[in-house]
Amino acid sequence: MSRKGLIIVVSAPSGAGKSTLCLRLLKKVPRLRYSISYTTRPPRPGEKNGKDYFFVSERSFRDMVRRRAFVEWACVHDHFYGTPKEFLDKMVRTGNDVILDIDVQGGEKIRRAYPDAVMIFVMAPSMQVLERRLRARKKDSEEVIGRRLLNARKELNYLPKYTYLVINDVLSDAADEIESVISAEHLRINRQKVSKF
What we know:
CATH topology: Rossmann fold
Largest sheet: 5 strands, parallel
CATH architecture: 3-Layer(aba) Sandwich
Radius of gyration: 17 Å
CATH superfamily: P-loop containing nucleotide triphosphate hydrolases
Number of domains: 1
CATH class: Alpha Beta
Number of helices: 7
Strand order of the largest sheet: 2-7-1-8-9
Shape: globular
C-alpha cells in the first residue's frame, strides 16, 4: 500500500516547548520533515537562515504574499510569518509527513486549506510553569513576557479547533505521545489505500 504524507500542525503558547518537541520528533520519526517558515523578524543568536527560518525583508515577504506563495501567513508579535505551499504539497505527494511549528492563527488557516491535517495543541502543565519557562529563557523583556502570557490565555480559546492536547511536563513523554498520534493517524482507514485482501 502506498502512503500519503500527513500535515501535522503543532501549536502552543510561547514557552510551552513546541519547537523543542518538533526537533526531538524530527530525530525520532522516520520520513518526518520540518516546514521552514519565512519571517521578517531578525534572527536570534544561533539561528541560521534556511535551517530555522528563511529570514527575508518585509518587501520580499509582501511580494511572496502577492504571488500566493504561502498557504498561510500572519503577523505575530509585530513580525510576519508564512508557510510555503509548494513544499507542503510536494512532501505530502511523495509520502513524507510534514510537521509545522505554528501559532493558532496559522494552524486555523492550515486546517482550512488541508481539512485532514493532524491538529495538535501543546501546553505546559500550568500558566505558572509557562511563566517560569519564559523567564528561564532570558530572551525577552518583562513587557514581552507579559504580552506572551496574555497571548497564551487567548490561544487556549482555540483548543476546540484541535484534535489532540499534549501536556508537555516531561519532554520525552510529550514527544512519545505525539509520535503515537502520528502512528495512529497513519492507521486510519480513510488515510489508507486498501486493496482487496
